Amino acid sequence: MLVNNQTVQEKGIQNNKIYKSCEEAIIDIVKSSNALALKNFKNTEIRINTLTSEKVSIELYVSNDILESSAEKKVAENSVGWLEFFPLTKKLQDITNDPENPELLKYDIIILEKNDISKLCGLVEINSNNTNKNSIKCYRKENNNYSFKEICEYSGVKDFNFLYSQIAGKFQQDDLLKALPKKDTIYSTLSTPEVKYSIKKDLITINITSEGGNTVLKIYETKDKGFIEATKSID
Model-level pTM? Predict the structure, then answer.
């Protein structure tokens, strides 16, 4: 889905601005960021490429006039950057150089203080009881065999890549890959003897073996929910 375009301006952004549309807010978020394309190219333009229930895909591009004849002039557009914005976590990342290893960007978070970006972009559904369907519910279950399980439910969210992006913050796992691999993967780090990814269409399983115990992470979905499940066993 393409929306109105806007050229990046040198002037600052009003911190107390109230936005009336998704594209307005996204454009200002990108303008305030440290995206490399904004520094490398003059007159960079910004537009939303696609919207899903979990993220906003953003294209950065430049336009050049092409003179085909004395009477006809055309405009050629060249993409110079690709970003992703996740309204639920307020994360902005640059996937231009390597989508598998996105670069986390900084931006003016004040832009979001007076604006509900999820609602502006139509990513939040409200039912008849005014309950947010995109709510997150986390809870813990204790077992008798020196293990416990933590589960987070994401109503209305079934994107495995988005769910994977939540693991590091919610379960303090620092040895995981930055992006979800596309196939089964095994590796080790200085602090973790083995990290094993099992990638299936309907289930992601990550086994983390450490000196203090084992952790099994699972990502899966039901009809209307996405789940992150972490089972930790203490040696």
Answer: 0.49
CA 108, 113, 116, 121: dihedral to nearest 10 degrees?
A: -10
The identity of residue 232, as a single letter, is: K
Tokens representing residue 94 in the block: 């640059």
Could you report the per-residue pLDDT of 162-192, keeping only the tens digit for each? 788 778 666 656 678 877 888 999 998 887 8
Q: What does the pLDDT look like over 32-45, one tens digit per residue?
A: 999 999 999 988 99
CA dist 150 and 108 (Å) reads 33
Helix residue ranges, H only, the chain: 22-31, 36-40, 117-120, 160-165, 167-171
Pairing of strands 136-142, 147-155: antiparallel
Which run of H or of E encompasses 62? Answer: strand 56-67
Domain ranges of the chain: 6-120, 136-234
